[in-house]
Amino acid sequence: MSSQVLLDLKNVNKVFGDNHVLKQIDLQIEKGKFITFLGPSGCGKTTLLRSIAGFYTIDEGEIRIDGKVVNDLPPYKRGTPMVFQEYALFPHMTVFNNVAYGLDVQKRPEEEVQKRVAEALAKVKLTGLEERYPHEMSGGQQQRVAMARALVMNSPIILLDEPLSNLDAKLREEVRVELRMIQQELGLTVIYVTHDQLEALSMSDNIVVFNKGRIDQYGTPHDIYFKPKTSYVADFIGTTNFADAVVRKVDGKKLTIEYGISGHTHTGVVTTDETVSVGEKVNLCIRPESLRINAPHGENDFALTGVVKSSMFQGEKERYFIQSEDNKEWIVDVYDVGQTHYEGEVTLSASSEKIHVIKDI
Ligand SMILES: Nc1ncnc2c1ncn2[C@@H]1O[C@H](COP(=O)(O)OP(=O)(O)OP(=O)(O)O)[C@@H](O)[C@H]1O
Ligand SMILES: [Mg+2]
């Protein structure tokens, strides 16, 4: 069943000295999903992963794996192996011995080890490379060995802590695709830690965005990008233009909003799933690719005039920095590079469905 909850975290808290690192973490992860923990350095990603694996004891809360509370179980009894960035593979061991390592530690009989390693290597399509050493393999193959090492333990969840951060950008992308394929083919449940937002958006079924030890949002890549719940999430993922606005009229999900500064206010209509009331201040969140320059726009669309301050060629797009009447800077991405170049006074607009309303202000 795709909706079976495999990992269930309730009110998980972890404190190091006077540093409250994990704060009231509630999270349910379903079987067979690829979940990414995303957030800046120091927000608690590794700490939560280590707490799930059993390397840290939590100070409050409950961790359930497959319905069973595992708070007091040591790592080897939880069956949640971690693949760490620091020691992806043992360089002095062959592929076979690398994969067999966990079973050797458990002192499993030789015959069983042979069989299970062969099965794990077959799953990641590395049969025949048993006697190679890591330095004799590509980065992608090494990553497969690391996966096989986790798979051989028949674990319900595989925890990967920034496993690709040592690879160069091109290889990283290849391995990313490969990792996602293995996960989908085998129906594995994977928790993957990264602070790379592109990686998170492109690989995950769901993303958990951390903000100083709390979960700000748990959702699909699409929702995280287009419907961020907080300004923090909107700001952390991609580039966002924010605008303060006041709600002037509420008609179901439709809001009439007023934005700009006194003397230069405009009104527009947006839709939202949030519950807001007349007079309430909200934050409008508009992606650079949603803004258009000198384009025709409807009466209810978001629109302002401004002056082009600078622009920057970025390959597939040109990024413009535009100052509006209220001295605010707007970032606008134009994708028909080479077709038109904008200078001087321009109008900026975005159709109302491209505007996302955030309540925290
Ligand atoms: N063993 C430890 N003892 C004391 N403090 C720790 C320990 N491990 C982590 N911390 C602290 O907990 C906080 C969260 O650290 P953590 O390693 O979980 O961050 P992270 O999100 O994984 O960051 P990064 O992206 O840099 O890996 C930091 O303030 C860190 O200094
Ligand atoms: Mg970390």
What would your notes on this structure say?
It is elongated, with a radius of gyration of 25 Å. The chain is built from nine helices and 20 strands. The longest helix has 18 residues, at 169-186. The protein has helices spanning 45-53, 75-78, 95-105, 110-123, 139-151, 169-186, 197-203, 221-226, 231-236; strands spanning 5-16, 19-30, 34-38, 60-65, 68-69, 82-84, 157-161, 189-194, 206-211, 214-219, 241-251, 254-259, 266-271, 281-286, 292-293, 302-313, 318-324, 329-334, 345-350, 356-358. Helix 4 crosses helix 5. It has a six-stranded mixed sheet, with helices on both faces. It has a five-stranded antiparallel sheet with strand order 13-12-11-14-20, with no helix packed on it. Strands 15-19-16-17-18 form a five-stranded antiparallel sheet, with no helix packed on it. It has two domains: 5-235, Rossmann fold (3-Layer(aba) Sandwich), CATH 3.40.50.300; 239-358, OB fold (Dihydrolipoamide Acetyltransferase, E2P) (Beta Barrel), CATH 2.40.50.140. It has 361 residues and is of the alpha+beta class. It starts with a strand and ends with a strand.
List the helices and strands and how they pair.
Blueprint: E1 5-16, E2 19-30, E3 34-38, H1 45-53, E4 60-65, E5 68-69, H2 75-78, E6 82-84, H3 95-105, H4 110-123, H5 139-151, E7 157-161, H6 169-186, E8 189-194, H7 197-203, E9 206-211, E10 214-219, H8 221-226, H9 231-236, E11 241-251, E12 254-259, E13 266-271, E14 281-286, E15 292-293, E16 302-313, E17 318-324, E18 329-334, E19 345-350, E20 356-358
Parallel strand pairs: 3-8, 3-9, 6-7, 7-8
Antiparallel strand pairs: 1-2, 1-4, 4-5, 9-10, 11-12, 11-14, 12-13, 14-20, 15-19, 16-17, 16-19, 17-18
Helix pairs in contact: 3-4, 3-5, 4-5, 5-6
The structure holds adenosine-5'-triphosphate and magnesium ion (MG).
